[in-house]
Amino acid sequence: MNKSPSINENYSLALKNYNMRNFIEAEIFCKKILSINSNHFESIWLMGLMSIREKKFKIANNFFLQAANIKPNNEKIYNNLGNIEKELRNFDSAIKYYKKAIEIQPNNANAYYNLGNVYKELKNFNEALKNYYKATSIKSDYFYAYYSSGNIEQQLGNFENAKKFYKKTLEIEPNHVSAYNNLGLAMSKLGEFSDSIKCFSKAIEIKPNHVGAHINLGLILTELGKFSKAINIYEAAIKHEPENLNCYYYLSNLKKEILDLHLKKKIEKILSKREITKINLVYGNFLLSKYKFNEKNYNEEMECLIKAHSNYLLSIEEHKKEISYWLNESSKTKNIMNQDEITEVYKKETNNIKPIFIIGVPKCGSTLIEKIITSGPKKLPTGEETSVLSSIFKKNQIYEKSSLNLEILKNFREEIIKKYTSKKLINSESNFIFTDKSLENFLFLDLIKIIFPKAKVINCQRDPISSIISIFKSNLTGLPWAHNLEHIFKYFDIYFNKMKYYQKKMPDFIYNLNFENFVNEPVAESKKLMNFCELSWDVKCLEYYKREDLISKTTSNIQIRKAIYKNSTKKYEPYKKIIEKYNKKYFWLN
Q1: Cβ-count burial of 280 within 10 angstroms (0-12 exposed, 13-18 middle, 19+ buried)?
Q2: Could you give the CA distance from residue 454 to residue 51 in angstroms, rounded to a whole number?
Q3: What pTM was computed for the model?
Q4: pLDDT tens for residues 284-323?
Q5: What are the tens digits of pLDDT across the range 85-141?
Q6: 198 occurs within a structural domain
Q7: Rounded CA separation 357/346 (Å)
Q8: Which backbone phi and psi does 359 adopt, to 5 degrees?
Q9: Cα within 13 Å of Cα(391), Cβ side
Q10: DSSP string covering 110-124, please?
Q11: How would you list the strands of the sheet with 433-436, edge to edge?
Q12: Where are the beta strands (DSSP E) in 265-381?
């Protein structure tokens, strides 16, 4: 008896059910076929696809390996095997299969794109970008590859490149909501605030319930000092997601009166649920810490903060590597040059670039100091938190080098200057003076003095307990070490030891500014500061808060819009007993 019609009929029914998403029925028909002909390629293929949909990846792997034995030159099989191995996080195997697919069909754009995704997972961003580029070379309208390229460039801090890729994505796919949202983030980093707002607004127009775009729009409006508009945006987001505690957190920073009993009960109810998002665990505890602070229950406030930060660290796996870098690798910069090399560089150095580096630890008053410096008679480009030195230092793995020869130093210097120029900080109109408030630059003072001999360095000093508690009461998402007290104390210890070393090595290069003294005597202290910077003092320096162009991306963006007020360390007295165990461990606490 001829079985072929039965097979064809069963396969037709299997395919029909598959397309209708009736996978159980489709599987029944496929199994009937395979009981008759165990090498029926189409049924094996369909069983593999259904297994992938059901996330039964090991079973799917077996089906596609069987398919490969039947049709060894079918590139789609190897592409699917690569996808399966990627899901199983067997990245070496995934790479092998994607390369096999490309070997069979060199113009396989999907395989190049998928290969790029694996390299992205492995943090091999250069290889990922190469493969995305190859995918778009084959298929010019492959917007997924452009979008993914934009995401990598954004992650690397190459915001101009990111902007280019997001715009290309939108040329092909005009309603790509995530591309608008991410383009808004890139433009914000580039200081293109008006266009950034338009992008977030467009994302919301396309998808009104896109809460992420609402939050990003609210944040940028806050940075620009448009608090009323930011409040409206957060309230609109809450209407779409009334249990999103992230929105309530940002709203509470601008509208403290929302922290009433009704909201507290709502937060507690959300936190008590068995099914709860990581983001709600983070921001729910941050919100509860505010209630405990208002009740002057400082021990329970700290307990809430510890829970909030612990959950934040758990929500972002890659922070572990970043924490290790900042607390171990980044400080390996001492004595990386011998004296002969330094002398040689000094002889050859002739550039007129005069950056003003503001260094210290977070919450040391640095935002205030930068605004005062840039509010004088001379208009200066402001690099609030450029991270130029740290990003280039990390990328080139300078900390691994025992010494730097002149060639390495020259290349390093050229890359730094190029980066500052791309950020529009170096220009003749300001006489090549600009500010860089990347506080972590205290790690690189040796290099700063060599690369920029005419630089000014201002070391912002504040009572360390005040800074530490202020950091812990905030959620500094860009600082992975700032979510654990042990990590915070270790980072501060690195800072104090580094500064102790540099104060002895180059005392005349560093201006030590005591924040408490500054706010108590702002006129006298600001005059001394401007004199050190070789800039003219004007009463406008202390009227920075009146500036219409005042922008702050830091968590101080609300306080910075007020006049200087005397700061008291007494408000942090209740926390001293809570953290007294650290007193004997660190010299700078005594």
Answers
A1: buried
A2: 65
A3: 0.86
A4: 999 999 999 999 999 999 999 999 999 999 877 777 888 9
A5: 999 999 999 999 999 999 999 999 999 999 999 999 998 999 999 999 999 999 999
A6: no
A7: 19
A8: -120, 170
A9: 14
A10: HHHHHHHHHHHHTT-
A11: 382-383, 433-436, 354-359, 456-461, 510-514
A12: 354-359
Dump pLDDT digits (tens) for 457-480.
Answer: 999 999 999 999 999 999 998 899
Total domains, the chain:
1
Dist CA 436 CA 356 (whole Å): 6
CA distance 297 to 577: 13
Single out the residue of 510, 521, 492 nearest to residue 585, CA to CA: 492
Q: Amino acid identity, residue 432?
A: F
Distance spanning both ends of the chain, measured CA to CA: 95
- Scan for tokens 């190029």, then name that residue: 418
Q: Which amino acid is at 483?
A: H
Amino acid letter, 219 = L
Residue 460 in any domain: the answer is yes
SS3 for 461? strand
In angstroms, rounded to a whole number, what is the distance separating the alpha carbons of residues 454 and 509?
9
Q: Which residue has the tokens 């452009």?
A: 146
Residue 308 within any structural domain of the chain: no
The amino acid present at 19, given as its one-letter code, is N
Percentage helix, strand, coil for the chain under 3-state DSSP, each rounded to 5: 70, 5, 30
Interior/surface letters 226-241, b for 16+ CB within 10 angstroms, e for the rest: ebeebbebbebbbeee
- The three-point CA angle 333-589-286 to 5° equals 90
Residue 76 tokens, joined: 């789609």
Domain that holds residue 518: 329-589
Distances from the Cα of 282 to the Cαs of 97, 110, 210, 278, 303, in angstroms? 40, 38, 20, 6, 13
Is 371 in a helix, a strand, or coil? helix
Nearest to 519 by CA among 573, 475, 465, 559: 559
Please state, in angstroms and rounded to a whole number, the distance separating the CA atoms of residues 109 and 33. 33
CATH code of the domain containing 566: 3.40.50.300
Distance CA 185, CA 91 (A): 30
Residue 322 lies in a domain: no
Contacts 24+ apart (CB under 8 A), 555-561: 555/474, 555/476, 556/367, 556/368, 557/222, 557/223, 557/225, 557/367, 558/222, 558/227, 558/253, 558/254, 560/367, 560/368, 560/371, 561/225
Other Cβ atoms closer than 10 A to 415: 14
| DSSP β-bridge partners for residue 459 | 359, 512
* Residue 409 burial by Cβ neighbours in a 10 Å radius (0-12, 13-18, 19+): buried
Please give the pLDDT value at position 343.
47
Structure tokens at 233: 């945006």
The partner residues of 323 in beta bridges, in order of sequence, read none
Work out whether the CA dihedral 39, 45, 46, 52 comes out positive or negative: positive
Residue 272: what are its φ and ψ, rounded to 5°?
-85, -10
pLDDT in tens, 569-589: 678 889 988 888 998 899 998
Handedness of CA 368, 373, 376, 379 (dihedral sign): negative
Torsion of CA 503, 322, 199, 251, to 10 degrees: -80
- Whether the Cβ atoms of residue 383 and residue 436 lie closer than 8 Å to each other: yes
Return all residues near 370 (Cβ < 8 A) that are at least 6 apart: 358, 382, 384, 435, 437
Reading the block at residue 268, the tokens are: 């507690």
